[in-house]
Design brief:
Layout: E1 4-10, E2 13-18, H1 19-25, E3 27-30, H2 37-48, E4 53-58, H3 66-70, E5 73-76, H4 81-94, E6 98-101, H5 107-122, E7 132-136, H6 139-142, H7 152-168, E8 174-180, H8 188-191, E9 196-199, H9 205-215, E10 232-237, E11 241-249, H10 273-278, H11 300-309, H12 319-326, H13 330-346, H14 355-368, H15 378-390, H16 394-397, H17 400-409, H18 414-429, H19 436-443, H20 448-460, E12 465-468, E13 474-478, E14 483-484
Parallel strand pairs: 3-8, 3-9, 4-6, 4-7, 5-6, 7-8
Antiparallel strand pairs: 1-2, 1-11, 9-10, 10-11, 12-13, 13-14
Helix pairs in contact: 4-5, 5-7, 11-14, 13-14, 15-18, 17-18, 18-19, 19-20
């Protein structure tokens, strides 16, 4: 049965592709990114969906939308090779069209998954050798001309599966349709098995030369491939045309999930743009950070610590004098550390400096006062700053409720511990709930909106419960501590700090 499908227009007349001939002679599509290859493949698949079973190897997940309109089964590539081979075998048995989506896999895993699936279809029993149109997008990934960053085993496995598809698949009913951005990157023994060609826009000389050779054109005519518009291709082959024929691909019914970027005006900047950018999203604290490990330079803290322990030889004091300076009790050293920390935090501007800046100032002051012993580490320093900023006194610090608060604070990030402990201290002591201005200062900002967002984050985490009394004053309760603050005015000014507050 001869079935011709409409691919678009050729010189004003319908451009017809013979599906039965295509099944016997295979197709190669070439074009740079943005030339319309995916659009062409989608047109071919939509027009032939009712006539032939289809299998699409989709590295970017663009063709999964065919399932809604034409009933293709979507197969996720994140399976074992044995599972994929079994699914492919059953796909052939039951003659079901499908899309193998490899989105989210790295290149080597994509190659292995595609190879397992293609081999599963290739190895099907003879009684299931029904005709199948096998479309492979970005074929240069699965049949590379040279080795790349993937293992040799994965490259051989994928290249072997693609070679079987294009060279030996015809007798098993498998008709390969492969699309590539670069002919030069596609293995020649795979590309050479196609007898039909649709060549789109390309700019590199080596790709234009290969395209001209495949189409039987003079190399001087290869320049035309630079001038092709998006969605325009030159066709040649027994299923298309016996002579090179320019074709404009027609419209499609479905669309890809991704699309080409379009220019669009920027939105008007909101008034609270700084709050939107610098206030952390609650989900950010739950999202694991994955960073590639790299050799780090020697930390500044280590250098400063070494400097604090060293003494210039020219000004070295006698051994007895130095011993008298070094030999201090642990209690006295702790008092000196607390005194230096208090000096730093007494400065109103310190609330708006980062912990790393304060830490460097702390280390310098320790050296100037010749406090003996190794300096405390940065995490310990941050912890001390958070406790100091909470305003807790010695009596409160000795209570079980405060111990519970310290335990709970370890569950929040370092930059939020100061705010959390300040609220906890108010709850333990029964003090009024801190105002937005005071919370903002504890976080190192002037924004009242950000302060309210921090409270919202704590509440979403189940650490606190925010409610109001009958007069509308705010109360913060700590379920795990069985304490809550006294009612407080959220809009009250911060008596202990800078009165500037971001306009709402």
């Amino acid at each position: 049965m001869q079935v011709g499908i409409d691919m678009g227009l050729a010189s004003g007349a319908p451009a017809t592709l013979d599906i039965e001939e295509l099944l016997a002679t295979r197709l190669l599509v070439q074009g740079n990114s943005g030339s319309g290859k995916s659009h062409l493949l989608r047109r071919l698949l939509e027009q032939s969906a009712q006539w032939v079973q289809q299998v699409i190897i989709d590295p970017e997940g663009d063709f999964v939308t065919l399932s809604d309109r034409f009933g293709h089964v979507v197969v996720d590539g994140e399976r074992t090779e044995a599972e994929l081979a079994g699914i492919a075998n059953r796909i052939r048995q039951h003659r079901v069209s499908c899309v193998l989506t490899l989105e989210g896999l790295d290149l080597e895993d994509q190659m292995r998954a595609a190879a397992a699936f293609l081999n599963g279809m290739f190895d099907a029993d003879r009684e299931y050798w029904y005709p199948v149109l096998v479309v492979v997008d970005e074929a240069q990934m699965f049949a590379p001309s040279v080795g790349g960053d993937v293992s040799e085993d994965a490259r051989k496995m994928s290249l072997g599966a693609m070679t079987n598809l294009m060279c030996r698949g015809r007798k098993r009913g498998l008709a390969g349709v492969i699309a590539t951005q670069r002919l030069a990157k596609l293995a020649k023994n795979v590309a050479a098995e196609a007898s039909n060609f649709l060549m789109g826009r390309t700019f590199l000389d080596i790709d234009m030369a290969r395209a001209a050779d495949l189409l039987g054109m003079d190399r001087r005519q290869a320049e035309m491939f630079r001038d092709l518009k998006r969605g325009n291709f030159v066709a040649l082959g027994p299923a298309l045309s016996r002579r090179p024929l320019p074709i404009q691909i027609g419209a499609v019914e479905t669309s890809a999930r991704s699309s080409s970027p379009k220019l669009m005006p920027l939105p008007d900047a909101p008034q609270d743009v700084e709050d939107l950018i610098f206030t952390p999203d609650p989900e950010e604290f739950q999202r694991p950070l994955v960073r590639r490990a790299a050799p780090a330079p020697r930390p500044t803290t280590d250098i400063l610590a070494e400097l604090s322990r060293s003494t210039p030889a020219a000004s070295a004091a006698p051994v007895e004098a130095r011993a008298s300076q070094v030999e201090v009790s642990a209690e006295e050293r702790e008092e000196r550390l607390a005194g230096v920390l208090a000096e730093i935090l007494d400065d109103p501007a310190s609330a708006f400096r980062t912990d790393s800046v304060l830490y460097q100032d702390f280390l310098v002051r320790l050296r100037m006062r010749r406090v003996p012993g190794p300096p405390i580490a940065l995490p310990d320093f941050r912890r001390r700053v958070a406790i100091s900023r909470s305003g807790v006194d010695a009596a409160t610090a000795a209570t079980d409720a405060w111990a519970t608060a310290l335990s709970l604070s370890s569950g929040v990030t370092d930059d939020l511990q100061g705010v959390f402990l300040m609220l906890a201290k108010a709850a333990v002591c029964g003090e009024p709930c801190p105002s937005d201005a005071r919370i903002a200062r504890a976080y190192g900002t002037h924004s009242a909106r950000r302060a309210r967002r921090l409270l919202g984050y704590f509440e979403e985490q189940g650490i606190i419960v925010v409610h109001a009394d009958f007069s509308g004053k705010r109360i913060v309760a700590f379920p795990d501590m069985d304490n809550q603050t006294a009612p407080g005015d959220a809009s009250a000014p911060d008596a202990g700090g800078d009165q500037r507050l971001a306009a709402e």
